[in-house]
Amino acid sequence: MVVKIAESRFKKILITGGAGYVGSELTSSLLNKGYNVKVFDLYIYGEVFKDIKNSNLTKIKGDIRDKNMLIKATKDVDAVIHLACISNDPSFELDPKLGKSINYDAFFNVVEAARINNVKRFIYASTSSVYGVKTERNVVEEMPLEPLTDYSKFKASCESVLQNIKDMDMEWTIIRPATVCGYSKRLRLDLVVNLLTINALINKKIRVIGGNRLRPNINIKDMVGAYELLLSAPGKKINGQIFNAGYQNLTVTEIANLVKEVYGHPDLVIEHVPTNDIRSYHINSDKIKRVLGFEAKFTVEDAIKDLIDAFNRGLIKDGLNNSLYWNVKRMQELNLR
Ligand SMILES: NC(=O)c1ccc[n+]([C@@H]2O[C@H](COP(=O)([O-])OP(=O)(O)OC[C@H]3O[C@@H](n4cnc5c(N)ncnc54)[C@H](O)[C@@H]3O)[C@@H](O)[C@H]2O)c1
């Protein structure tokens, strides 16, 4: 899964949302491999690249709702990775009109800007929550989408937009990631593994709400690897394709037990709380392995270890209160329009 730039036809990459949780790690990794990266982002969660001095990095502070700016930014770009959005249910629900304008309406801008500038490859970050709740054991890419929330519904709608474009001369692919876990320089603590770990570290107490619900997970290092693979793969393998990307489907209780095991603090308490929220997601990721040879190398345990290590090194500052780690808090604070 290691990508060398020489193997990829595409050297100049634009990442919308490149300053986010996944985007910032992806950007660093691509820069380390010699790619030229333009990050197009509103920098809602701060200037994450201040320590990076690399002439291959171009930072553009912009809104994907600004089509003209996107058209300028996508000039001389080989591939676009589209990550920017309001990226979870609660932040979307804070202001559904704003959420739709960014997650759906602006999607047309990103695709059009890429097409106008003859971008060769377009990679769209959807989500595995587009499937909704399924009883089948193996939730594969061909299954009908039954998104339960507006955030997932508009992710699914963007997939349809791509699939229905006529005369598409740009290669495109859609990835449906599981919930990502692990440390990033723009950290999110509102994601299940990260949330349970920070509570263990600070409160010495984990509240497990609806412990039997399943969650598919992917370590952020593998998530980055999956995007790199989609960049370097031959067009005939990825064009028009949709790939699930997950590794371990675990119940919330199993995740809590892993946190307890890895952290190993004798005073750690796990409290179980029932819930009416029946959302239980699990996915099968055999296709990305079969077609592209993607194999996850990092586990949920590795993600927990990395978070504990970052915490012990003082890299997570005021974890429970710092709004930069919590999308809903940050969106409330910003009052973006
Ligand atoms: N993190 C996960 O567990 C996960 C799981 C499945 C899918 N995804 C998808 O992966 C992508 C990245 O997720 P993430 O966790 O890194 O999210 P994130 O919230 O950390 O990053 C999103 C980035 O988009 C930027 N942004 C938001 N609105 C913008 C706008 N109007 N114009 C320009 N930039 C804007 C933000 O500033 C932020 O840097 C998202 O599309 C998300 O839906 C994430």
Short description:
The chain is an alpha/beta fold and 337 residues long. The chain has one domain (5-334): NAD(P)-binding Rossmann-like Domain (Rossmann fold, 3-Layer(aba) Sandwich).
Q: What's the main sheet like?
A: 7 strands, parallel
Beginning-to-end CA distance, first to last residue: 40 Å
Shape: globular
Q: Please, how many domains?
A: 1
The protein's oligomeric status is single chain
Tally of alpha and pi helices: 12
How would you describe this structure to a colleague?
With 337 residues, the chain is an alpha/beta fold. It has one domain (5-334): NAD(P)-binding Rossmann-like Domain (Rossmann fold), CATH 3.40.50. It is built from twelve helices and twelve strands. It has helices at residues 21-32, 67-73, 89-94, 96-116, 150-164, 192-203, 220-232, 235-238, 252-263, 286-292, 300-312, 327-334, and strands at 12-16, 36-41, 57-61, 79-82, 121-125, 171-177, 179-181, 205-209, 214-219, 241-245, 248-251, 269-273. The protein has a seven-stranded parallel beta sheet with strand order 3-2-1-4-5-6-10, with helices on both faces. Strand 5, helix 5 and strand 6 (171-177) form a beta-alpha-beta unit. Helix 6 (192-203) crosses helix 9 (252-263) and helix 9 (252-263) crosses helix 11 (300-312). The longest helix is centred in the first third of the chain and has 21 residues, at 96-116. The chain starts with 11 loop residues before the first strand and ends with a helix. The model has no long low-confidence stretch (mean pLDDT 95). Residues 16-17, 19-23, 41-45, 63-65, 83-85, 87, 102, 125, 127, 177, 179-180, 186, 188, 191, 327 line the site of nicotinamide-adenine-dinucleotide.
